[in-house]
Input
Amino acid sequence: MIQSLKKKHLVLCILGTAAFWIIAALIVICEMDSIKCLFETPKAFEELKAEDIKEGVLVKAKIYMIYDYYSYYEEDGTVTSKEYLIPVGEKEYMGMVCSGSEMDIADKNMQIYWDYTDGKDIGGAEMEELEVEGTIMPLEGESLRYYNQYLDAVEITEEERTDFLPYALQVNYIGNETKGGLVAVAIFTAVLVVVGTIFLINGIRGTNIKNLRKYCREKGNEELYMNRVEQFYESGTPVQGIRVNTEYFMAVRFATVYFAEARDLIWIYPSIVKHSVNFIPAGKTYSLKVCKADGKQFDIQMKNEKAVNEAIDYVAKNMPYLIFGYDDTLLNMYNGNRSEMVRQVTDERNKYLGSIETE
Output
């Protein structure tokens, strides 16, 4: 019995481990381009030529000249990021996407450039060095559409248009992810690996029978009591995974083992939890609540209400001295005056066991 339960638990844990590790592997595969960038040395943006502008190139740039912007994004009426036009190579141009303090510096430099080209007196205004790191990525979707609309509006020739490269420097990006996003992905992936490893360790250690082993060990003769529990397990047919006699209570759901001495139980009741999503009913979950004298509880999951009722009927038939059913009075008593419940159940149990002996 012990080995079969342990083996079943190990199989389920291995399946859980495989699921977590596979998800982690898929995340790594999806983020492989960004991960590769982590091990690359950023190239100096100022030294790049037009033919060097490719997807996934990690760069470090010192930018002064900001010609214009062709797109911006806002939330709640506040501009959160902009896409600017910057020089690259010998005579080419490309986009740059930034936000926060980098956007503030870019706006300042762009305004100085506008004022200068408009013939305004810029006084002692100087462009501030914008030092950034990021990844060059191709323009796509809305960004590409706005970029092309901008080029259409400035009325340049087709030959001049070839100098405007359909790429943008994504500031603070590593591959396809922001630095913060990549850190979050790395942490999430690490958590998946760790959780999967914990599943595997638990399966190998047989944690599903840990409490059972602890009980037998505390009795002073682990082998003797393990054999007694083994005999109890093999002696009867379970109902909804539950076995009971005058000495023990055991429930096995999937590979989880709930075990207690019969004298430790005092109250059993059904639990039905209704679920909803945005006030729309989303099903119910059913379980059997088994409350012990020490205040600890088993929450044994069941398939449906019928299964719960069958389990209660079975336990009630074999342990009629327990308290069954739920109401607030019983809950308050269990939380505030449990000793009285224990006394009542103990008295009824002694009477029940006495009646069995006389028979």
Remarks:
- The two ends are 32 Å apart (CA to CA).
- Residues 2-30 form the longest helix (29 residues).
- The chain has a mean pLDDT of 90.
- Residues 11 and 203 are 7 Å apart (CA to CA).
